Predict the 3D structure of the following.
Amino acid sequence: MTMNEQRANWVNEAAHSMSLEGLEVSADYRADSQEYVAGKVTSDELVRKARARFGLD
């Protein structure tokens, strides 16, 4: 399995977990996570983007 495939699995698992909790997976999340899957951003950058989106920084 390639790193991109593993990242895609992690992203899909996170989205599935969110949906099980009754949360909606936003288009912004999907766009950011695709950058992560493609290796354009690190996991730390992905978390920073999400925190900034919700005003947590």
